[in-house]
Structures are given as structure tokens and as C-alpha cells.
């Protein structure tokens, strides 16, 4: 609408109040509300046009807009009470049939995403892992520098990540818990335990005065990235991170761990594929995939016609990351892996679109 004069706003408010008075049911009243006060409603559209009025007309139009909205909402509330009273009176007139069966109470249950996460943790705990946690609002140093990201890595850009300040951000991965978990294995008296999280990661090892214990943890949590929503991607998603640091850890341990885990969760017939990849915090690195459940490897829209669904990334922990955790890379090695919980849930329950997990559609949720 080109203009939103005070007179137009008052006329539209009177029109809305007239329709509200004619509404004969709650459904009709809701239709009127959406038609005038909804996101694309008539009154909403007029109010948006106030900003385009000349300066001398804008104050009067603004006052008229506020008065119109208040008047329409008051009329809505009044009519809603009238309809409720009419319905109560009609029910009382009809009487109460005490022979009718009572209404059952629906019992809530766990969301499929949470049951998936709990099952994943059960498997890893059974494999000897402990569960570690970390904050979702994290230090820039732990999210990037301590994980061996170069200063010019594109993932650090504001169009890819959410920043609170220059030093604080919403974590883009649960890999940040790796550093916290490794430093937590040092003795209480070791200076590494007392270092500020912003301390240069490459200098952490020089402050170690103990023999840190081996690390074997899984870290579940919510992560945030600036991504477009697709079948398998979302800007907010859950991730599960795994880390093992000890003497003699090899890539064979990594492949065996992930294959055993995936077949335990998805079934013994699950096929697992590893392909070379690159991640700053692991070397060598590999992504791992499983055969697509929806098409059984024939190719479909969900697996992008490849027959495989990528689950996550993995590799041997980079020496620089071990140093940031206070471990000597000449004495120990480690494996790490991470994957999206939503993708595992999609694969397990045959859910095509990740968005289905967040829509709170009761028709979907009642299936679990």
C-alpha cells in the first residue's frame, strides 16, 4: 500500500470491528484476526506503510495505528468472551450425559531426536567412553585456533559463523570439547589446568608439569552454523564428538571403532565407506558414510543419487591439537570423529527432510 494515512487506518479499524461483531464462531473469529492482524493482514500492511509517509503526517498516522490495533484486539477479546459464554450456555441447556466415556489423557514421550542421542551415548558408554559436556557459547580460541585452523580459513567468516563478540561465538562444532577434555586429564596441580582458554594453544605443552591421563570421551551438544536448510543440513543441529588419546592409537582403531558403532546402531548389514578428506584438526582425515536406507544404495534425492549418506568426519588428532590439550605428540596419538545426530536419526527412522524433526507436527511425533 502506497500510503497509510490516519483516516485510512481508522476506516480499516472500523471495518475490522464490524466483521468481528459478525463472527459466529471461534473459527470465523480467527479468520478475521488473520485477515487484519496476521503477518499479511490488511491492518498490518497499512501499518507497515506509515514509514513511507511524509514527516508531517507520520506522527498522526502512528497514533492512529496504535489506537486501531488496541481497538481491534479489544474487540477480538470481547467477542471471544461472548462466543465462549454462548457455547457454555448451549452446553448447559443440552445437559451433561454422564454415561459418555471419559477423555483419555495423552502421555508425553521422548522426541525421536533425543531417543536417538540417548541410544548413541549408550553404545559409546558400552565401548568404554565417558560423556563430556562443553558450553554452546564458546571462546574463539577453542573453536578455531586450538583446533589448528589457519587464520584465513573461510569458516571463520561472519557469513558462515555466529559471533557474539570478537572473542566469543556460538560454537560451530563440538570439537571444542576436545581441548577441554584433554586439559581436564592433567593433575589438579598442573599449570595447564589453570591456563586461560585464550592462552596461545601452541604454548600450552610447555606449561605441563605432569603425565596427563589417557582421554576417551564423547561430547554431545547443539551447534550453530550459517547454512541454508536442505534435506540433511540445518543452521542449528546436534553433533556428537568422539576423542581418544593414548599411546599407540592408529587409523585402524578409528575404522574399527566407527564400523562397530554404526553396525551396532543401524544394523549388522550396514555398509560403511571411508574416503580421504581434509580437516584442520586431524591428519590423516577421512569422511565416513553408510549405504542409503531409503533407496538401499540405488540412488535417490536424499543421497543425491550416490547411494551413500555421509555421516561425519574423522581422523587422527593433529599434533598441534594434542599440544593445545597439553599432550606430547611424540609420546601419544589420538583419534577423533564427529557427526550430526539428525542424520543418524533420519537414517534410522527413514525421515527424508531434517526440518521434519523441528516442526513439532503431532502427526509425526505420535509415530514414535
Structure, briefly:
The chain has helices at residues 6-22, 26-37, 42-48, 58-94, 112-126, 140-143, 176-183, 251-266, 319-324, 341-349, 362-365, and strands at residues 130-131, 137-139, 168-170, 215-224, 236-246, 272-279, 282-291, 308-317, 333-340. It is of the alpha+beta class.
Helix and strand topology:
Blueprint (H helix, E strand, L loop, with lengths): L5 H17 L3 H12 L4 H7 L9 H37 L17 H15 L3 E2 L5 E3 H4 L24 E3 L5 H8 L31 E10 L11 E11 L4 H16 L5 E8 L2 E10 L16 E10 L1 H6 L8 E8 H9 L12 H4 L3
Parallel strand pairs: 1-4
Antiparallel strand pairs: 2-3, 4-5, 5-9, 6-7, 7-8, 8-9
Which structural class do the helices and strands define? alpha+beta
CATH homologous superfamily of the largest domain, by name?
Bira Bifunctional Protein, Domain 2
Number of strands: 9
Major β-sheet annotation: 7 strands, mixed
CATH class designation of the largest domain: Alpha Beta
Q: Give the C-alpha Rg.
A: 29 Å
Question: What would the average pLDDT be, to the nearest integer?
Answer: 87
| CATH architecture annotation of the largest domain | 2-Layer Sandwich
Low-confidence stretches: none
In percent, how helical is the residue content?
25-40%
Under CATH, the topology of the largest domain can be stated as BirA Bifunctional Protein, domain 2
- Strand composition percent: 15-25%
Q: Kindly report how far apart the N and C termini lie.
A: 47 Å
The strand order across the widest sheet is 1-4-5-9-8-7-6
CA-based shape: elongated
Instruction: Report the order of strands and helices.
Output: HHHHHEEHEHEEHEEEHEHH
The count of helical stretches stands at: 11
Tell me the count of domains. Answer: 2
